[in-house]
Write a structure and sequence with these properties.
Number of strands of chain B: 12
CATH topology of chain B: Rossmann fold
Shape of chain A: globular
GO molecular function (chain B): ATP binding; ATP hydrolysis activity
InterPro entries (chain B): AAA+_ATPase, ABC_transp_ATP-bind, ABC_transporter-like_ATP-bd, ABC_transporter-like_CS, Oligopep_ABC_C, P-loop_NTPase
Family (chain B): Belongs to the ABC transporter superfamily.
Strand content of chain A: 15-25%
Number of domains of chain B: 1
Strand order of the largest sheet of chain B: 6-7-8-3-9-10-12-11
Number of strands of chain A: 12
Number of helices of chain B: 11
Order of helices and strands of chain A: EEEHEEHEHHHHHEHEHEEHHHEEH
Helix content of chain B: 25-40%
Structural class of chain A: alpha/beta
Largest interface: A-B, 46 and 46 residues
Radius of gyration of chain A: 21 Å
Structural class of chain B: alpha/beta
Radius of gyration of chain B: 21 Å
Membrane topology (chain B): Peripheral membrane protein
CATH architecture of chain B: 3-Layer(aba) Sandwich
Subcellular location (chain B): Cell inner membrane
Number of helices of chain A: 13
Oligomer: heterodimer
Distance between the termini of chain B: 35 Å
Chain lengths: 330, 327
């Protein structure tokens, strides 16, 4: 099966400081891929670089292909056809992504004009259909309102509707629910999952919220300090994380059941990109690190169980003995 | 048993205006809230944005004066905001905000900032103050060599540690934390949550912990109050409340928490948005989003009533006996 997007050996440096170190990533048509990791690990930069959205001080090397087209260093006009048209992106803060002084309806019609060449009544009709699709109640009467007259969750719905205007093959959602309340977050996640199924559109879901990723994604990549450290199907990765960093991320999440014990944080902080450790970037924070980890960096290698892992001393594979008895009883 | 903090029937009304020439409308941000906080206890306040939880937090400290109701701190009524008595009392109750970078002065070193409360409240002598700053930095897990750093040189988690150290400088009896870990990554969030718990166990201070993150609240708090549109809709010991929520709103909140490894199916997804506090629905404010609402909910505001096991709920449909059937 051909991949929709292939990222090969993508590296990014800001003012000579490398922040992304050769990322390889594929997105299949219709697939839902999650990218998780702490802030500053390169989740967003990967996709901003792929779409040519980084400022000019960034140097991007490697290759990003969409079908036959190469995106890195592509001329601006061809990139502009792809952005919004074939790959759309939505961001964390919807109220700052919308123009505050232009009515919402007009902003939607602008997107339709740019990507589908729809004008006048046709554009208006399509814009209303999209607003209905993303669940804006009473779209007809709210077409001419300004962004500030909508709540945060509804602004995010409008952003999603605008992203859908170009009928993209791939939707990149960069922390789409982080700024929203829990109940609204659940609604938006539900919406994204539904739209993906209805429109057969691939989704890349960038988030630091493992719980949210688990709900909408099929495959997950965990990133740390500009590299992918573990990659695999969501069930596998979540039931049995093997990279100590992935495991640490799970252990740090407080639980809604069980005893109220002190949490298990990952000690220390994310390393400064100007001053990365010599070996594995996670080694200084890792409780399993040995001499090798501090001197040599493990490569991301495919494992027998289908995942890819960049760790010299991964956690044991079989952790299922905990889950198995539950399945028997239920 | 005497309480560290007693708040009765607190009301805070902002006057909101719709449009430039619109008529000023009263917005009841906090509408009749009563709370008790015992010494050494952690009380969580959860709710969506606009539910009035931050306003309530400021009112408990007297930063925002109450328009109705009263706050008693350590058995004494709260002095008027801005008065000398109130300023003196502020040494005993401190606040931690969400955004540490905004709460810190970018032009002062962190040691100076941690020291400021000691200077303001004239605690100790020059020498003991310097020693106290060192102790505080150690207690919150900052290295001594970081004392001369500026806030921008620290990471988000370290900045929040500075804010916490500063809040603890005057050895307060009460700490109000307003979303202290919301801006932090999970791994760092866990560090700060553990720090708050340890500090509380060591110093025995009472803590009000305001957050929208139910998982953190459950982990840290002894008791939890759930707010919706300026009112407390349910209150109880945190483990029981989250294990068996009784108010339909709490049930929806608990159900909306994404858990790793759990798919979307089978969750109660609440429809609609939190309503505008300026246009408060009649009766129970939650009824337009509630799947169980009946006629009485639309007409009569439910009062908080005891539902057993030290819990209270404000819902017509929750009585002591039926409580567990609601699902």
């Amino acid at each position: 099966m051909g991949n929709l997007v292939e990222i090969r050996d993508l590296s990014v440096a800001f003012d000579g400081v490398p922040v992304l170190h050769g990322v390889n990533l594929q997105v299949a048509p219709g697939e839902a891929l999650g990218l998780v990791g702490e802030s500053g690990c390169g989740k967003s930069v990967t996709w901003l670089a792929a779409l040519g959205l980084l400022p000019s001080k960034a140097t991007v090397t490697g290759s990003v292909t969409l079908g036959q087209a190469e995106l890195v260093d592509a001329p601006r006009p061809s990139l502009e056809n792809i952005r919004g048209g074939r790959i759309a992106m939505i961001f964390q803060d919807p109220s700052s992504a919308l123009n505050p002084v232009i009515r919402v309806g007009r902003q939607m019609m602008e997107a339709l004009k740019l990507h589908r060449d729809l004008r006048g009544d046709a554009a208006r009709k399509e814009a209303l259909r999209l607003m209905d699709l993303v669940g804006i109640p009473d779209a007809k009467n709210r077409f001419n309102l300004y962004p500030h007259e909508f709540s945060g969750g509804q602004c995010q719905r409008i952003m999603i509707a605008m992203a859908l205007a170009g009928e993209p093959d791939l939707l990149i959602a960069d922390e789409p629910t982080t700024a929203l309340d829990a109940t609204i977050q659940a609604q938006i996640l539900d919406l994204l999952a539904r739209l993906r199924a209805e429109m057969q559109m691939a989704t890349v879901f960038i988030s630091h919220d493992l719980g949210a990723v688990a709900q909408v994604c099929e495959r997950v990549c965990v990133m740390y300090a500009g590299r992918i450290v573990e990659q695999g199907p969501v069930e596998q990765l979540f039931s049995c994380p093997r990279h100590p960093y992935t495991r640490g991320l799970f252990d740090a999440i407080p639980r809604l059941d069980g005893p109220r014990a002190p949490l298990t944080p990952i000690p220390g902080t994310v390393p400064d990109p100007r001053n990365l450790p010599a070996g594995c970037a996670f080694a200084p924070r890792c409780s399993h690190a040995r001499d090798f980890c501090h001197n040599d960096r493990p490569d991301l290698l495919p494992q027998q169980d289908g995942r890819a892992l960049a760790c010299a001393y991964p956690l044991p594979e079989a952790r299922q003995h905990k889950a198995a008895p539950e399945q028997v009883t239920s | 048993m005497s309480f560290l903090l007693e708040a009765d029937d607190l009301v805070r009304i902002y006057s909101g205006r719709s449009g430039l020439f619109g008529k000023a409308q009263p917005v009841r941000a906090v509408d009749g809230v009563s709370l008790r906080l015992a010494q050494g206890e952690t009380l969580g306040i959860v709710g969506e944005s606009g539910s009035g939880k931050s306003t309530l937090g400021r009112m408990l400290l007297g930063v925002d004066p109450a328009q109705g109701g009263s706050v008693c701190f350590d058995g004494q009524p709260m002095p008027a905001t801005g008065s000398a008595d109130w300023r003196g009392l502020r040494a005993r109750m401190q606040m931690v905000h969400q955004d540490p970078l905004a709460a810190l002065d970018r032009r002062l070193t962190i040691a100076t900032q941690i020291r400021e409360p000691l200077d303001i409240h004239k605690i100790g002598t020059e020498d003991t103050r310097a020693a106290r700053v060192q102790d505080l930095m150690e207690a919150v897990g900052l290295r001594p060599d970081q004392a001369d750093r500026y806030p921008h040189e620290l990471s988000g988690g370290q900045r929040q540690r500075v804010v916490i150290a500063r809040a603890l400088a005057s050895d307060p009896d009460m700490l109000v934390c307003d979303e202290p870990v919301s801006a932090l990554d999970v791994s760092i969030q866990a560090q700060v949550v553990n720090l708050l718990r340890t500090l509380q166990q060591q110093t025995g201070l009472g803590m009000v912990f305001i957050s929208h993150d139910l998982k953190v609240v459950r982990n840290l708090c002894d008791r939890v109050a759930v707010m919706y549109l300026g009112r407390i809709v349910e209150e109880g010991p945190s483990e029981e409340l989250f294990a068996n929520p009784r108010h339909p709103y709490t049930q929806a909140l608990v159900s909306s928490v994404p858990e790793p490894g759990k798919r979307l199916d089978g969750r109660v997804i609440l429809q609609g948005e939190p309503p505008n506090p300026a246009k408060r629905p009649s009766g129970c404010a939650f009824h337009p989003r509630c799947h169980m609402a009946s006629d009485i909910c639309r007409g009569v505001i439910p009062e908080l009533h005891a539902t057993g096991e030290g819990r209270t709920a404000a819902c017509h449909l929750v009585t002591d006996a039926t409580a567990t059937q609601v699902a």
